[in-house]
Each structure stands twice: as structure tokens, then as C-alpha cells.
Amino acid sequence: MINYIEEIAVVGTVKRKNAIINILDHIGVTYKILGNTAENIVVSVNPSSKRMVIGAHYDAFYAGANDNAAACVILLNLISKLKDSKSSIDFVFFDKEEQGGVGSREYIKIVGKENIDSMINLDMCGMGSNIVMSYNFINTDFAYKDVFRTIVSNCANLLKELPFGDYNSFVSNGIPAIFIINSTNHDLEWYKNYSNRIVRDLNTDFMKTMHRQNDTIDTFSDYGMNMIYEYDI
Questions:
Q1: 3-class secondary structure for 142-182?
Q2: Does residue 126 sit in helix, strand or coil?
Q3: At 137, phi and psi to the nearest 5?
Q4: Helix H segments across the chain?
Q5: What is the pTM of this model?
Q6: 116-122 and 32-34: which strand pairing?
Q7: Were both Cys, which of 79, 117, 131, 178 would link to 135 (CB 3.0–4.6 Å)?
Q8: Residue-range domains of the chain with CATH
Q9: pLDDT digits over 134-151, tens only?
Q10: 96 backbone dihedrals φ, ψ, rounded to 5°
């Protein structure tokens, strides 16, 4: 997988946005900036009223290599791989996730929830060796149902709930969605306890880089990012 982590894991939302745009220009992909108070970067492949969204937020605290440049790198490589797909897909780099999901909510409002079939959210994908998922699409009928069921059935760590992400914006609008992260063994236990509502405090001994200055390429792991990219999404 082509690694763009050094370009994206930098301090400053504008620098991160420009890095993603420069890479999209380099790989020859058309994009648009979508949003009113947020600047979502959207690459649309065969846009329709039955589109799947695959998204990752690009805003971050500090350099944000794990949260969330690694997921942006995966998304860029998926775009290169699937840009000629016959499926209807919006690849979205969401802005302002760290401000409560402003960007993803605006995207849904502008596109219209009736035009979104399903969603895959990638977040915190650059640290650890455990793929973890949460999902919400039971008892729904949508075009990607079999694909989604295959994705979750192949995951050893399915949890009822993960901490807030852009995934929540879609679920709250009744859109079937999967939330995919990577985790260290240490953090996996915390995620399980969070899902079971044993712990709820994000400031406990958990995710030692999230929202911290040491979330840089020095703590980033290619291995974890490649695990998710090579997973059958």
C-alpha cells in the first residue's frame, strides 16, 4: 500500500486538507469540497440514490497520525483501487469530527439521507493488531446487506458500541453503518469494557496517543493500517 502518512500527519487542519487534495490531484481523481461550516472532501464514483459512503475524518488534535491520518491513507488507497468500480460510492474525508461530527452531519444534510444506502467509517487505524468493529444494520434492507454481513462475520472483535465517531451521525439518521478501528491488546480490553458500559471515561489509561502530542509517525504502525486495508471491505 502506498503510504501517504508523512504528508497527512501534520499539525493544522488546512495543511492536512491540502495534503489530501494534492494526493488526489496526483492520482488523477476528481473531488469536490462539500459543506457549509465544514469542508468535507468528497470523491464520488457513480453517484446515485443508493450510494455507499466510505469515510474517515481528516481533522485532528496535533499531528494525529493514528487519529486519523492512518484512516485517511487507507481511504486514499481504496480510492485508487475502486475509482473505476461500477458500484455507487462516495469516499468522504470528513472535517470537524473532533467538534462533534459537524462535517458528517452536514454531508448527510446536503446529500440527503434518502440517497445514502450505507456507510463504513474508518477511525484510529494506525496502532495495534486487533481489528475491532461496531455496526448497526440489523433488520434493515439495503443494497450492500450481504457485503456488510460478510465484513462483520469475518471480524473477531464485534462490539455493541464504540466511542463517538462520524459513524454516529449516520446511525442517528437511520443509515446502516459499520465502524472499523484498529486496537492494541491493552486498548481492546478498554473498548470491551466501554461497550459493556463498565467504563465510559475517555481520560482513563486508554489510547495513549489519542488527542495527545505524541500521536505522530513515531508511534504509527504500518502493520495495523495494512491489516485494515487488506481486510475484505
A1: CCCHHHHHHHHHCCCEEECCCCCCCHHHHHCCCCCEEEEEE
A2: coil
A3: -155, 20
A4: 5-8, 13-26, 70-82, 102-111, 145-153, 167-171, 185-195, 222-230
A5: 0.96
A6: unpaired
A7: 178
A8: 5-230 (3.40.630.10)
A9: 999 877 788 888 889 899
A10: 60, 35
